[in-house]
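Kindly review both lines to help learners:
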Amino acid sequence: MSATAATPDAAASAAATPDAAASAAAAASVGGEVGKEAEDVVVQYVVLRRDLADAWPLGSVVAQGCHAAVAAVTLEVKGETQLKNLAEKLEAAGVRHKVWIEQPENIPTCIATAPCPKSQVSSFFKKLKLCK
């Protein structure tokens, strides 16, 4: 640990504002260096209603934030083989994505793409049906 490392209290207070939290995340994503690139990082803010936490379980309030953060179109494939084939095509095309592997069962359950222009990815998804 370097002599200039932030204390946990300093890090907590720095993350108390949205811009500070985004800057901290940016610094972490570029190896701790805070520079021009770190200042222009892509961020997403999720704003929760604090009053709901008084009436709802905290997990339910956080789940609402997760819903808002994703707000994605959900499609379906028939099974694991089709999911793996889609992942291979996305990988070959350089489309950033994540295959979620449920543990401890080690079962691939879904794919999420990174946000990107529809024109770059629609061809991979045009034949898939909405998940119902």
